Amino acid sequence: LAPGWHDMLMSSPHGQQSRTTVRVVGPDERVGVVSDIDDTVLVTALPRPLRAFWNTFARHESTRRPVAGMPDLFRHLRGDGPEPFTAYVSTGPWNLAPSLERFLARHDYPPGPLLMTDWGPTDDRWFRSGRQHKHDSLRRLLSNLPGLTWTLVGDDGQHDPALYDDLAAEYPDRVQLVLIRELTPTEQVL
Known about the structure:
Elements: E1 4-11, E2 17-24, E3 31-36, H1 49-58, H2 70-78, E4 85-93, H3 97-106, E5 114-117, H4 130-144, E6 149-155, H5 160-170, E7 175-181, H6 185-189
Parallel strand pairs: 3-4, 3-6, 4-5, 6-7
Antiparallel strand pairs: 1-2
């Protein structure tokens, strides 16, 4: 396929079909942006479990709000040139993807794949590691898209600073910029 966005019909080996949109990264593209979602682009108050549960499962998506200033930051990152390849990584479950896509579009964030996770136990633990999911997702992006130089966007509420520091040290020629939103002291406590 040519570089850009394409509508596709995908099917599983069992015959289920689903329509989706994919973005093909062109050989001349050089810029990528990867962003955390929770408390980076979307206010979730994730460190407070009950509020996070409420925001995730009970609150209607149209009442959710973006982190102040973040849509403007993403417009700035786009600049006047071609839109950079943008991906979003979250420790949230896949079943939230449709509402997150609508939220991102409604607030003028650039479209891009959502790298979500599964909830539930694994073979060796009761809960999946959000840090490991982000670690694996970031390295897979760099491996699969070797021609891109990345801007990493996150917040200091969970693992983003350490993960992004590790990635920048491991791939100094591939990480152009790390942007970390500092949570307020109140947000840190909550």
